[in-house]
Amino acid sequence: MRKILVIEDNESNMKLASFLLENAGYLVLKATDAELGIELAIKEQPDLILMDVQLPGVDGLQATRVLKENPLTKQIHIIAMTALVMAGDREKIMDAGCNG
Hints:
Layout: E1 3-7, H1 11-23, E2 27-31, H2 34-44, E3 48-52, H3 60-69, E4 77-81, H4 89-96
Parallel strand pairs: 1-2, 1-3, 3-4
C-alpha cells in the first residue's frame, strides 16, 4: 500500500485530507507539526508528502528544505498545501524544494 504523509496543523484540514486519501486506498501518516513530520518522513519513507505551508514553529517551507537536504528523504515528492496564496508564493514554494 502506498503511503502519504500529511503534515497539517489544522484538525479539519487533516480530517478531510485523511478521509479522501484513505478512501482512495492510501495509507495516511499524520503529523501536526514540522518536527514530527520530518521524523516520520525519515522513519517511514512515504511515497508522497502533503505539506502545509503555515505550521507552528518550523514552517512548511523550512521543513521542505530540511527534507530535501537529507539524503534519506530528498527523493520524496512534496506537494505544498495552503489556503493563503499571495503573489510570489508559488516561486517561494518551488524554491524551497516542493514539487508542486
